[in-house]
From TrEMBL:
One matching Pfam family: FAD_binding_4
Keywords, ordered alphabetically: FAD, Flavoprotein, Oxidoreductase
Family statement: Belongs to the oxygen-dependent FAD-linked oxidoreductase family.
Superkingdom of source: Eukaryota
GO-annotated molecular function: FAD binding; oxidoreductase activity
Keyword Transcription regulation applies: no
Name used for this protein in its record: FAD-binding domain-containing protein
Domain FAD-binding PCMH-type as annotated: residue spans: 1-129
Nucleotide-binding among keywords: no
């Protein structure tokens, strides 16, 4: 957990509880774990939990800040799946917050981050699954066609994404990354998808898709929702697999390689086709500025990981209200001497995008805490009524502000 100069470091790395309940309906998880540990433990039991989309994301921060998984449309946010928190409070007592006891604290910890105590275990709902899912990862060139001046495939890719969000299918998930990969000629749309095998009818198998030959005969196995995506516009490359959903998180790991510097900026927008167009358009229009400022070797090493990621937040995920989508501008780089360039570029790209969306009435003030940058105020996007309630609960559990003054870093509820 966060440290302070002249303070102590509270390391939770040894709290690695992993206990599936006898009835397999819930699992007790320690805060010292990463999602890969949890998925591996659950593999033989045909149950799954709502966790990170790559394996090396920490369990506690993900759950205390929200938690967006591939299967949010089916099971909601990670925090919605916490049945009980065991928490050490500011007065050093240990309590269990759940629907029957400390209900206010139970509510506040779901998005309240480190403002209420140190969570020493999470009881999570374990969802029964058949152990199989159709998972795919496709890359499309979105480079500009010199003849038409338009981006290849971009319109179709965005149409398909919008259709996916509109469909609000509760057995599927999608994560589109729009990147600039110099080795592959620049702009690339990288789409990862999953469809759960809810009826137990999928046959295990795997295949790769080679764009220049079009979809292979194996594509017959592709669920209809994703078939359109691959048939109309054959990807440059792609692979699919009928396998455990955990496999998709493993396949995503290379998109977040170790050893790089990385920084996120996040905003929310109404999930419309126009928003998608604006967000991707501004991102790609701003890339030449980076190409000018960075030396060739840095561009080759890092730009492939610089992306705008669209996180569809479907109606099913919110269970009510208007559709929203989040987008994250991610910059990844290697050499610390480019910190300033990369941070300035991200700040400006993020500001320009939010402004442009605002002018069209498409922006939304929600800032997803887990992907927010240090200079973004995650609590500013919470509703007034919710903030009032959070403050009242904090007054009750931490009147002396131990967690605010003693546990610096992270997002703190303002006074
Ligand atoms: C490559 C990458 C991929 C990601 N993918 C996803 C994704 O798919 N979905 C998603 O929703 N998010 C994703 N994230 C964001 C991720 O959820 C956050 O970074 C999250 O904070 C990680 O959890 P952590 O435990 O490592 O957090 P930390 O950085 O350790 O902590 C975050 C905050 O929580 C507090 N905290 C930590 N442990 C406790 C505890 N036990 N009790 C009380 N407070 C505590 C800390 O003090 C800090 O304020 C991703 C991030 C990265 C870098």
């Amino acid at each position: 957990m966060s440290t302070i100069t002249d303070g102590v470091l509270v390391a939770l790395t040894k709290l690695k509880t992993l206990e599936l309940a006898e009835d397999k309906k819930s699992v007790l998880v320690g805060p010292g774990l990463q999602w890969g540990d949890v998925y591996r433990y659950l593999l033989p039991h045909n149950v799954f939990v709502v966790g990170g989309r790559i394996t090396n994301i920490g369990v506690p921060g993900f759950l205390l800040g929200g938690g967006i998984s591939y299967l949010g449309s089916r099971w909601g946010f990670g925090m919605d799946n916490v049945e009980e928190f065991e928490v050490v409070l500011a007065d050093s007592s240990v309590v269990r917050a759940n629907k029957r006891s400390h209900l206010d604290l139970f509510w506040a910890l779901k998005g309240g981050s480190s403002n209420f105590g140190i969570v020493t275990s999470f009881r999570l709902t374990a969802h029964p699954i058949t152990g199989k899912a159709w998972i795919g990862k496709f890359a499309y060139s979105t480079a500009t066609d010199p003849d038409t001046g338009k981006r290849n495939h971009m319109e179709t890719v965005l149409d398909k994404l919008q259709a996916f969000v509109d469909k609000n299918d509760d057995t599927s998930g999608v994560l589109p990354l729009f990147m600039y990969v110099p080795q592959h000629g620049g702009p690339i749309g990288d789409i990862s998808v999953i469809k759960l095998d809810v009826e137990g009818k999928m046959e295990m198998g795997a295949g790769s898709i080679q764009g220049e030959y079009g979809p292979t005969p194996d594509m017959i196995h592709v669920p209809k929702l994703f078939k359109d995506m691959t048939e109309e516009i054959p990807p440059m490359m792609g692979a699919w697999n009928i396998s455990h959903p955990y496999q998709l998180t493993l396949a995503m790991n290379p998109d977040a390689p170790d050893g790089f510097r990385q920084s996120f900026r996040v905003h929310a927008a109404k999930a419309t086709r126009e928003s998608l167009e604006l967000i991707t358009h501004i991102f790609y229009n701003r890339i030449p500025e980076l190409l000018e400022k960075l030396p060739a070797e840095e561009i080759l090493q890092t730009l492939g990981q610089t992306s705008v990621i669209i996180q569809p937040i479907t109606k099913n995920m919110l269970k009510q209200g208007e559709k929203r989508g989040g987008y994250i501008i991610t910059v990844t780089w290697f050499d610390p001497k480019y910190d300033e360039i990369m941070n300035e570029w991200s700040d400006l790209t993020s500001e320009l995008t939010y402004e442009a969306l605002g002018k069209k009435g498409l922006s939304h003030p929600f800032i997803y805490m887990n992907d927010a940058h240090g200079n973004q105020d995650a609590f500013a996007g919470y509703g007034q009524r919710e903030m009032k309630r959070l403050k009242k609960i904090r007054e009750q559990y931490d009147p002396k502000r131990l967690w605010k003054k003693g546990l610096v870093g992270g997002y703190k509820i303002p006074e």
